[in-house]
UniProtKB/TrEMBL annotation:
WxL Interacting Protein peptidoglycan binding domain span: 30-148
Start and end residues of each WxL Interacting Protein host binding domain: 159-285
One Pfam family recorded for the sequence: WxLIP_PGBD
Designated name of the protein: DUF916 and DUF3324 domain-containing protein
Secretion signal span: 1-25
Amino acid sequence: MKLKSWLVGLLASVSLLLLALPGQAEQNQYAIRAVLPSNQVDQETGYFDLKVSPKQEQTIYVRIKNEAATKQQYDVATNLALTGDSGTIVYNQAKPKLDKTLPFNIADTVTAPKIVTVPAKTTSKFALKLKIPAKPFDGIVLGGINVSPHEQANQKRQAGVTLQNKFAYVLGLQLREQANITVKPDLKLLKVAPRQENYRNYIAAKLHNPRSVIIHDFHVDSYVVKQGSTKKQLQTTKDKMLMAPNSTFHFDMGDGTMMLTPGTYMLHLKANSENGKYKWSFTKSL
């Protein structure tokens, strides 16, 4: 399947710039495609990767193919790329907390229609207007153009409960001012603290990517020891993760069931990316 083809299934690039969010195949009666402009860095990719300049204004286009037998409406939104706590890049937060190292929120540079209407068995395109800030930036700024059905699919009411199953596409939008990115990844450990998620208890290391570049092939080895002991507790290893530019996420340690007895503990965490090309090591009390 060529990357320029329509996005009609579960798609993902190395940086998760093309993807479809959960939904059943039989409900997917539409597809989207980027109309790549002349300032696209690589014309063989299926997402927007644009070389831009300060104060530049540009209009880009996305095509929607409606394969349904009736007219359809689609919601459109552009969101900043963030790092989910599972170690993946996500594009689903409309009002994210912005990292102080972020050059700018890509959503603020885009003006697009909120709803697009496409006649039955027709392909239409809609425009997104970009306005790049005046201040130059290094590396990349990353976001996603979200396209989803305006009407909720397969909505059923049973005993007053609404069940929803909605299919959505995210088309990557990456901006850069240099064709060749020279920014190198970095990693910071901001804090270590207990954290509860879905009624399960973890020790979480809050990791920070302060650079405007994706951390690829991200691998973390971690364990906790009680002061004065060498016994490893809450030992956790994860690999094949990704971190979005200028973002943070909680690296949860343990399975959510083990409780630490009172005392002073030390976290030992080692991380690397790109098969060990970049390495980091942290020790911190909690």
